[in-house]
Amino acid sequence: MTASKFTAKFSKFGTTFHFSGAFKSADVSNLNSGLAVLELLGHHVDGLPLRDIANALDLSRSTAHRLLNALVVLGYVSQEGELSPYRLTMKLASIGLRYLSLAGVNRLVQPVLDRLAAQSGDLARMSLVEDDRLIWIAMAQGSKAGLRYDPISPLGEDLTLFCSSNGQAWLSCLSDEKALEIVARQGWGDPGRYGPNAPKTIKDFLDCLHRARETGYAIIHEAYALGISSVATAVRSPEGQHPIGVLSIAGPSPRLTDQRIRELAPWSRARWSAASAGRGGGTARR
After folding, report:
1. Which of 243, 217, 214 is nearest to 230 (CA)?
2. Cα 153 vs. chain centroid, distance in angstroms?
3. Strand 283-284 vs strand 228-236: parallel, antiparallel, or unpaired?
4. Last residue of a domain, which of 43, 64, 89?
5. Which residue range forms the structural domain that includes residue 58?
6. What CATH number is given to the structural domain containing 55?
7. Where are the alpha helices (DSSP H) in the chain?
């Protein structure tokens, strides 16, 4: 097999690094496996032993051990003792945070979320579209005492699309066919993991999308989680052609009623539109 030749040169703060060689199919396989290890450990804050990592990724223990040693040397993974579990270091998180900071995402999004959380008295969150996924990137808690919603899903995690207001708000910007394709790829999941009002059929799901298209925002009550309601609106690119993210408010259902949601939805869209216009960002849907 012919290898793809490459030569690259990168400079940073006066230090120059040279890379030269060839990519082979084995290199690509090792890269894929190494990234899979990082993604797996990202779901286990306490770490995992070598055996569990190898089994989860269908790797031999020798291959898993070699990959983990390389990741330890590079600073992405740590192991306190020879028999201790492998854990992610903060290096990967710091790269992501640095990227968001340099891209201006934090500077643009966090003030909007802080004001929205203060106005609503509930949890305000922002997710970004990445390929055919939605990923949590920022949040602000507006409830200071009493009944409040503290999400289990951490920042950086993918959203479940079919039963979340964020997922429905984003997918309502797409065709029904494309939305169904994306949800089918992600999977409908175990009904027991979600709220009692999660869509149970394709028709239920499409009805949710159609309502979101008509109003410009998606509303759910006890669909994503028991006792939780939320409203979400899609954020579009500066040209207004495609959705780039979703802004949402979520809180306990007894407080976040239909009437309260309808009071907040126009305000959230206007808040995002005004903030983004002043900073050169995207504009909200409708």
Report:
1. 217
2. 9
3. antiparallel
4. 89
5. 22-89
6. 1.10.10.10
7. 25-41, 50-57, 61-74, 91-102, 105-120, 165-171, 176-186, 202-215, 258-279
Number of domains in the chain: 2
Question: Which residue is associated with the tokens 């891209």?
Answer: 103
Residue 17, in any domain of the structure: no
DSSP 211-274: HHHHHSSEEEESSSSTTEEEEEEEEE-TTSSSEEEEEEEEEETTTS-HHHHHHHHHHHHHHHHH
CA-angle at 135, arms to 35 and 49, nearest 5°:
35
User: What does each of the 286 residues of the chain score in pLDDT, given as a tens digit?
Assistant: 344 433 343 343 344 444 444 445 556 678 888 899 998 998 888 899 999 999 999 999 999 999 999 999 998 999 988 889 999 888 887 777 677 666 666 677 888 889 888 888 899 999 988 888 898 888 888 887 666 676 666 677 788 899 999 999 999 999 999 999 999 999 887 777 889 999 999 999 999 999 999 988 899 999 998 999 999 999 887 666 678 889 999 999 988 898 888 788 666 555 555 444 444 443 333 3
Tokens of residue 214, six digits? 């008509």
Q: Which residues contact 196 (CB under 8 A, 6 or more apart)?
A: 222, 226
Contacting residues for 181 by C-beta, under 8 A, at least 6 apart: none
CB 127, CB 272: distance < 8 Å: no
CA distance 220 to 223: 6
Do 177 and 215 share a domain, yes or no? yes
Residues 135 and 236 in one domain: yes
d(C-alpha 284, C-alpha 243), whole Å: 9
